[in-house]
TrEMBL record:
This is Acetyl-coenzyme A transporter 1. It comes from Monodelphis domestica (Gray short-tailed opossum). The lineage of its organism: Eukaryota, Metazoa, Chordata, Craniata, Vertebrata. Residues 1-12 have a biased composition (Basic and acidic residues). GO terms for molecular function: acetyl-CoA transmembrane transporter activity. The keyword Transmembrane helix applies.
Length: 527
């Protein structure tokens, strides 16, 4: 609904009811001849809750388990890298609200939503990031450093052109095509940086602490998104600055988009230089474990993993899991702006959420750090669906409480409470899936492996959002043909409730089979 992280987002359910007899693996032996029986499986958790995880002895500390305090500097560095990653995401996320204030069509909004697709397509070039690098400089730094330098240059260049693209310089209409192509490239670079950081996290942290990677990801991206979206929209708004920050009104905000881009481009340059000079990659990783296969072998391994039945089931489940959330996530904020709610007020509603968004991953990580991280994902799903219905009612209610001076205080309180509940469900699902992905990813092809799982999650959120924006404008589906936004949302949620039982079955089957990490071991042996 609001300009906050909703993408950047499978569960394991405890065995239920009459399905126990066919899915319970607590007792008994595996049938002879199965590959699970041929090699021991590491198990974590209590009775009946064991999850086969990838044996990654190459990333274990030779001194035994290490607490997070021993790796605090690495955790803080990861956190900072994810903050930098959130800046381009936040800036791109602010553009739809700026375009909506300029009365562009929902067709244009749907077209611009394609800029977020690089995070759903990065799997195509992730094997290159894993397989091509300068060993003397560092496997992950070989991509991280040049990518962040290019991002800095791109932001500085974009600062000289963005006012013309938005039509601010000459008072014309926005050039949506140019904006989409430009920010698509912007997000492409951010996605490449994400591959390098995700892969580096697997070797920067010990296996005991790798679960903190998901916390760094969620907290860092939230902070970066806040800086690039909420803070920017507030400081860019003349109304907000004149009302809260100035004594004398002026026609412009304190900063412009071009100023903001130039500032962060400079920050990228400085910090990337410091990382290149001062940070060394982990020397404790066993070379044979960290050295990857060639490009061809990496792509072969990727396709072998994708073809595994359990992986296909997992991917299909994640690709369909967010259909019921698409209208609520993609359209609600735009509809509120359309109904007269100032975009900077919507952005400011995210300010009280920042402490919640930072604390939530820390709380949720206690439940996702164990053997069943996907349990949280599935349990949060129905509550997020119900909040989608509440969003529809809120959009319907908005014009009824509007008055000439704006909206009453109680309206913003209700929106804020709705937003807070939405964030709890969103982060529960997001941290859960990120924790699972980090658990089963192997450093051998860490960037590719984790990117495969994260890409499926991102794509599962992006394609429904693009379709929802397009359908809202065209209404070509018979079920939605004579519907307003609220009815569209209700229809999507009802359809998704029909699919939720299939999701439950898929999760149970995945639970009773083997982990994706163990699937990786099997297919890697076949290459």
């Amino acid at each position: 609904m609001s300009p906050t992280l909703s993408h950047k987002d499978s569960s394991r359910q405890r065995r239920l009811g009459p399905m126990n007899h066919c899915l319970d693996m607590k007792s008994g032996s595996l049938p002879p001849g199965t590959w699970e029986a041929e090699q021991p499986v590491d198990s974590i958790g209590g009775e009946g809750d064991s999850e086969a995880l990838l044996l990654a002895t190459g990333t274990r500390s030779p001194r035994g388990p290490r607490g997070y305090r021993a790796e605090l500097s690495n955790i803080l560095l990861l956190l900072f890298l994810y903050v930098l990653q959130g800046i381009p995401l936040g800036l791109a996320g602010s553009i739809p609200l700026i375009l909506q204030s300029k009365n562009v069509s929902y067709t244009d909004q749907a077209f611009f939503s394609l800029v977020f697709w690089p995070f759903s397509l990065k799997l195509l070039w992730a094997p290159l990031v894993d397989a091509v690098y300068f060993k003397s400089f560092g496997r992950r730094k070989s991509w991280l450093v040049p990518t962040q330098y290019i991002l800095g240059l791109f932001m500085i260049y974009l600062s000289t052109q963005v006012d013309h693209m938005l039509g601010t310089a000459d008072g014309g209409s926005p050039d949506v095509m140019a904006l989409t192509l430009t920010f698509f490239l912007f997000e492409f670079l951010a996605a490449t940086q994400d591959i390098a950081v995700d892969g580096w996290a697997l070797t920067m942290l010990s296996r005991e602490n790798v679960g903190y990677a998901s916390t760094c990801n969620s907290v860092g991206q939230t902070a970066g998104y806040f800086l690039g979206n909420v803070l920017f929209l507030a400081l860019e708004s003349a109304d907000f600055c004149n009302k809260y920050l100035r004594f004398q009104p002026q026609p412009r905000g304190i900063v412009t988009l071009s100023d903001f881009l130039f500032f962060w481009g400079t920050i990228f340059f400085i910090t990337t230089t410091l990382i290149a000079l001062l940070k060394k990659e982990n020397k404790e990783v066993t070379p044979s474990k960290e050295e990857t296969k060639g490009i061809t072998d990496t792509y072969k391994l990727l396709f072998t993993i994708i073809k595994m039945p359990a992986v296909m089931t997992f991917c299909f489940m994640i690709l369909t899991a967010k259909v019921g959330f698409s209208a609520a996530d993609a359209v609600t904020g735009l509809k509120l702006v359309e109904e007269g709610v100032p975009k900077e007020h919507l952005a400011l509603l995210a300010v009280p959420m920042v402490p919640l968004q930072i604390i939530l991953p820390l709380i949720i990580s206690k439940y996702t750090a164990g053997p069943q991280p996907l349990n949280v994902f599935y349990k949060a799903m129905p509550y997020r669906l119900l909040l989608g219905l509440e969003y529809a009612l809120m959009v319907w209610w908005t014009p009824k409480v509007a008055y000439q001076g704006g909206f009453p205080l109680y309206y913003y309180i209700i929106v804020l409470l709705s937003y807070a509940l939405h964030q709890i469900t969103l982060y529960s699902m997001y941290v859960s899936i990120m924790a699972f992905n980090a658990k089963v990813s192997d450093p051998l092809i860490g960037g590719t492996y984790m990117t495969l799982l994260n890409t499926v999650s991102n794509l599962g959120g992006n394609w429904p959002s693009t379709v929802a924006l397009w359908l809202h404008r065209t209404r070509i589906v018979g079920l939605l043909k004579q519907s307003n936004f609220a009815k569209n949302l209700v229809a999507l949620v009802l359809l998704h409730w029909m699919a939720i039982m299939w999701n439950l079955l898929s999760v149970l089957l995945l639970d009773s089979a083997v982990s994706i990490g163990r699937l990786y071991e099997r297919c890697s042996l076949s290459l």
